[in-house]
Structure formats: structure tokens, C-alpha cells
Amino acid sequence: MISRVKICAVVAAADARSMWTQVRRALDVTRTIELRLDWLSDDAEIAKFLARLRASQRANPERATLIATCRRRQAGGKFTGTIAKQLVHLAEAIRAGCDWYDLEIETSSACPPELLDVLLGEGRQMSSAHFFERTDKNLKRVAVDLARTRPDAIKIAAQCNSLVESMDVLRLAHGRKNVVAVPMGGVALPARVLALREGSALAYAPVQNATAPGQVTLDAMKHLYRADRLRRKTRVYGVIGDPIGHSLSPVLQNAGFQARQMDAVFLPFLVRDLKDFLRAIGPLGIAGFSVTIPHKEAILRHLDDRDPMAAAIGAVNTVVVRGGGKLYGYNTDYVGVLRALERRIPLRGSRALICGAGGAARAVAFALAESGAVVCVCARRMKQAKALARVVGGEAVERPRLRREFFDAIVNATPVGMYPHSDRAPLRAEELNCRLVFDLIYRPRSTKLLQIASRRGIETVSGIEMFVAQGTAQWEIWTGERAPESAMRRAVLRALHNEEKMAAR
After folding, report:
1. What is the pLDDT of residues 109-119, one digit of tens each?
2. Do 241-331+469-485 and 344-461 have matching folds?
3. Can you point out the beta strands (E) in 167-303?
4. What is the pLDDT of residues 280-329, one digit of tens each?
5. In what order do the strands lie in the sheet containing 235-241?
6. What is 7-232's CATH number, 3.30.420.40, 1.10.150.130, 3.20.20.70, 3.40.1110.10?
7. Which of 39, 136, 402, 439 is the most exposed place for a label (fewest CB within 10 A)?
């Protein structure tokens, strides 16, 4: 066993002082740490850091499992020195208190085993292979090659362009001890979180600087996803979309699971190919998922059934996986719109403009029409705007008319202004002739559109209102229990507040 503590913090910085700061932060969360010596700027900084480590271990042993890594550039690291110098640094790290050293196959294959034994024999060896660009088609053969010199553990990290590929990587650890399987890449992020559940000896997470594509931060791995507590019977949920990095759905839904002490986890799935995700539902044990841009309409043809409102809207944002892998769809965006607006304006008889004609816009249009509002639609593609307006008995409005028109409410149902493109707005100031502006975007909390409206004295409604309402409705559909809405809302607001503080620095 490499370590009893399975989440491995990755410490990586250019100078010894910053490196040590990360070590202290890591120890607040875990007791297994990888020290990326190759990230230090030069030999002097490596020596300085190891001297600090040696002194600390003598004065106050932390009972932590330390893994020294000094990966050369040929293996995807930053170290530019010779193999001999690399081995010297690793030997010094072992003498400074490291239990393990990670040696990539590019170096180990070039060194006689006798030399490694003489220089590094006091430490335990992890033999590793990394595929940052293209995954070897025969990873099992790679595992056999790594194990040939009988290291204490092996690690295979491979770039994955699909969930299917990421599951192939995780299978390397099934039923085997001291095998670390690391799927890399944005698509593989959920597999990284589930790696320990699938049998990997460790799951890596950076304290601060990402050292490989698709990594999850140490804080998120431990506290948001609770990766070290996931078991085979843990229910897996998620959100699918492209892009997905902006989504706070994992924060919202996991807060609900934790508040109710449920054995469940909610993960973000970057999905470019719907069929790839659908093939992963069974193997990953996915019990339900939410759907965001651009899949809300495309998912319809893969469902076995849907509720009447979702069928009428023609877009789904919530899916339950039933017995036999049957997929049943719902639309809770509808609920979110009503809860956000009903408390602020009388909808019956009001005139509302919707910007956009996609899946989210359809939910808004049906919610408003069912409540008795006169629905107007303005979209970049007038053909789509007219089609949506026709379905709800409304009117398509061309953009040049907006300066002369007045609405009780304007609702932005486009992604324009969404993080990280927060400096954009779908409409200009002179086009906001209304009493209220509601932006479905919740990240950032105060979008450019809402800022423009506020400066004009117009009442604004943040997308947080709809986000929390539709998300708690999803949670209740999946679990069959009443959602802890206050806890879920607090978690989202805290995440946004922390993000805004970081952005202001």
C-alpha cells in the first residue's frame, strides 16, 4: 500500500519558499504529498527546498507520505538537467525524508537497475509512464513493461479524449494493488474523481498549480467531491455540457447531498459527443444528470420518455436513469423562471421579451405564456425566433425595433456575458426599455447586462434565483426527498463570493 491516505496533494512551485507554503497547505487536507522538484527553477532552489524539508523532518516529523518527483522534459516535466543530476536530486530527496520517488520510464529504461539500487535503494520506487498527447493503444502492455523491473508501484497517466478512453485507463487498476491510474484531460475529469472508487492507489490533486490537464484542485477533490469516501454503491449524478467549467451545479447539488448525509456525488461532464457520455452511464453507475448548453434539445432523441411539460417545451434539463438504463426527461427551468419572476411582477397581462431561442429560451417562453404573459422573442436567427414565438402564441421582434418598444420584463436566455466572457452583453443600454431585466446567467452574479440595467434604474434579477430554484427541483426529482434549499443556496453564494474576491485581487 502506497499510503492509507489516498488523495495525493501535488506541490509545485518555482521557488523553495512558495513550494514550502504549499506543503503546509497540503498538510491541512491530506497526509500524502507529491513534491514536484522539477518545477523549482534551478538546482539551487531544489537544494534550498530539500534543506528546509530535511530540517523540518528532523525537528517535527509530520507522519506524511512524501513522493519525490523530478520529471524530465522528455517525459512531460520541467527538469532540463541530465539523468545523472535527476537521480542525484531524487537521492537527496530520499535523504531529506521522502518515502517514495517517482521515476518515469524514459529514465528508468536508460539506467541499469544496479545503479538505481545504489543511488535510490533507500526509497520505494513508483515506475511511471505519461502520455500527454496520444494514449498508447495497448496500456496493458505498458503496465507490464513498467512492472518488469519489479518496482513497488506503477503509475500510468494518459490523455483521454472520451469517457470511454478514461474508463479504459481506470480499468488498469481493477483488482490490482499499488497501481495508480490517472486519466488526463477535461473530458476525463469525472474519471479522476472516481479513480479511487475504481481501485487506483492514489488520486492526484494540485494544491495550487495544475501539473497535468483536467486536474481537480485539492480542496475540490477532498471537500466538494469527497473522492476518498466514494464507494461502488455511491450514487453518481452529474451535469453535461460544453463548456462546463463555469457550472456551479456541482457546488449546489453536492451541498444538498452533504446536508442530508447522502452517499452520492455530483460531477461535471464536459460532453462534446452525447453518444460517448451515454455509453458511460452504465459503467459509471450514473443515476441521473442535468443538461445544459448545447444538449438540452439534442438529448431528446436519446430519451425513452419525458414528462408532458418537457415534451411541450421541446427541451430537457433533467434526466433520471431508471431500471434497465431507461432515460426519462424533465424540464425544471420552467419552475425556476416562475419562482424568480412571480414575486416581482404580475405575469398575467405583462409583456415580456426573451433574448434567444434555444433550449433555455423555450422553457422561459412556455413559463411566461402559461402564466398569461404576452411573449416576444428576439434572436440572432429570426427563423428560430419566429418558430418559438409561433409555438407559444407570441411575436417575433427584430432587433432594430427594440429601441422603440417597451416591455414589462426582458429576459436574457443566451450565454452572452457568461464567465469567462463577462465583459459582454446581449443588448445595449438604449435597447433596455423595460421595468425589469432578468439574466439567466448566474456566473458572474452581476452580469454586464444587469450592470447596464441597474445604471438605468431598472430592477434586476440575477440568474442565481432561477439556478437555485431549478437545481433544487432537480435534486428532489433524483432523490425523492425535500431539498435543503438554504444549505444549497448558501454554498453557491459562498462560492461566488470567494470567486469575486479572487477576481478583485
Report:
1. 888 888 888 88
2. yes
3. 179-184, 203-206, 235-241, 264-270, 286-291
4. 999 999 999 999 989 999 999 999 999 999 999 998 999 999 999 999 99
5. 264-270, 235-241, 286-291, 318-321, 327-330, 305-306
6. 3.20.20.70
7. 136
For domain 344-461, give the CATH number: 3.40.50.720
According to DSSP, the β-strands at 153-159 and 124-131 are: parallel
pTM, two decimals, is 0.92
How far apart are alpha carbons 223 and 7 in whole angstroms? 11
Contacts of 488 (CB under 8 A, 6+ apart): 252, 253, 255, 256, 259, 468, 471, 472, 475
Q: What are 431-468's pLDDT values in tens digits?
A: 999 999 999 999 889 999 999 999 999 999 999 999 99
Residues annotated as catalytic (active site), given as ranges = 296
Nearest partner of 6 among 192, 130, 187, 188, judged by Cα: 192
* Strand ranges (E), 21-70: 32-36, 65-69
Amino acid symbol at 23:
V
What does the alpha-carbon distance between residue 11 and residue 213 come to, in Å, rounded to a whole number?
Answer: 15
Please tell me the CATH code under which domain 241-331+469-485 is placed: 3.40.50.10860
